[in-house]
């Protein structure tokens, strides 16, 4: 895709949805990542969620072919209010603040939307690489309190510096 910042290409490569995956993008904005993910789907579907109608209009223009083909559905909603009967294989977000704010209502919704073995890819941009450990530690604490585990934290080598991804899964429940 033309005019897409390199960090979105890096993100799509890291998420690497399988052809039949059911994918949710939280806070899709103008839809820069949508096409990069949708091209990898054959029988799968991408739901792109954003609370801003004007941003979704831009996303619709940018990704009209995928919407027409039935690979992408755009939804206007606050994440905390979003529900579906079909949990997701992969959930993706870029700079979504409920991760670092530890908003338990949103993290509870996230838990309901991901399949037990599904993966969540939470991407963040920071001004400097040296802030990543502190932010990742803060996010990890919030996630653990909400019943998630961090599988891996990946730091991008693509410009701008300071982009990283936390790959997250629901924590396995232990018997007591």
TrEMBL record:
A GO molecular-function annotation: methyltransferase activity
Entry-linked InterPro entries: Methyltransf_25 (IPR041698), SAM-dependent_MTases_sf (IPR029063)
Any Gene Ontology biological process: methylation
A Pfam family the protein falls into: Methyltransf_25
Keywords for the protein's UniProt record, in alphabetical order: Methyltransferase, Transferase
Residue ranges of every copy of the Methyltransferase domain listed in the record: 23-118
Name the record gives this protein: Class I SAM-dependent methyltransferase
Species whose genome carries this gene: Chitinophaga oryzae
């Amino acid at each position: 895709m033309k005019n897409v910042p390199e960090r979105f290409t890096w993100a799509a490569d890291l998420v690497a949805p399988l052809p039949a995956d059911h994918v949710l993008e939280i806070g899709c904005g103008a839809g820069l990542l949508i096409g990069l993910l949708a091209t990898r789907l054959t029988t799968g579907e991408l739901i792109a969620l954003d609370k801003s109608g004007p941003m979704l209009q831009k996303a619709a223009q940018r990704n009209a072919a995928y919407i027409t083909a039935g690979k992408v559905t755009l939804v206007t909603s606050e994440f905390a209010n979003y529900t579906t009967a079909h949990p997701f294989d992969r959930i993706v977000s870029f700079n979504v603040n409920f991760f670092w704010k530890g908003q338990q209502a949103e993290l509870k919704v996230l838990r309901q939307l991901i399949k037990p073995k599904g993966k969540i890819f939470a991407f963040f941009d920071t001004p400097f690489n040296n802030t990543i450990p502190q932010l990742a530690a803060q996010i990890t604490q919030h996630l653990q309190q909400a019943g998630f585990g961090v599988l891996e934290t990946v730091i991008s080598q693509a410009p701008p510096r300071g982009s990283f991804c936390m790959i997250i899964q629901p924590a396995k429940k232990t018997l007591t």
